[in-house]
Every structure is written in C-alpha cells, then in structure tokens.
Amino acid sequence: MRRVILFTHNFAAMRDFYRDMFGLEVVEEDEGWADMAAGGSNIAIHAAGKGAAGGDGAGPHKIVFHADDVAAAREDLVSRGAKMGPVKVFGELHLCDGDDPDGNRFQLSNRT
After folding, report:
1. Which CATH number applies to 3-109?
2. Could you say which of 27, 60, 78, 99 would form a disulfide bridge with 54 (CB–CB 3.0 to 4.6 Å)?
C-alpha cells in the first residue's frame, strides 16, 4: 500500500488537522491535493467535487497501491477477476480505479 486518500469538502481544515495534530509533513501539495508522509505509507487529502457525498467513488476514502506499470498491474488483476476501470493518464501520472467485493474503491497509481 502506498497511500490512503481522504476526500473532503473542507480541504484546508483537513490538511491542517493532519499536519498540525499528528505532525505529518506535507511532501506534495497542489490545488485540492496534499500528500503527507505518514511512516511507510502516506495520507493524502483530496478536495471532493461539488455534489459528491464525500469522495469521487463509493466512499470518502480510497486505498492506493503503487505499480510501476499501471496498465500491466490492471491486466493482471482483471485476469484474476477484479473489477477495474480504465487506465487514466495525466502526463507521467497513470491511475486506475477498481472496486473490491463490498464496493470500496481502490486505486493503482505510479505516483511515488
């Protein structure tokens, strides 16, 4: 596991809470995104879209697993029966969302 993403409609307050209360270091920040070092994994705060209950998927959180080759990791999971969406590419960043049997969202990402 690489990170857990917490989706929120109160980005600044959530970022500040985890930074100030737990002393997490913000290692990457962009508009609506703050990735914080939390030991062996990171906690990322992500602004939720307008109208979203909490997140962009089935819940207000997303567990993210790192994959150097997201497309290959996706194909491996699909071949073993996982429900996966398409690979999304944003420049060098490759992402792919899937759902576990209870509908919880997870993601494959090449973001380090």
Report:
1. 3.10.180.10
2. 60
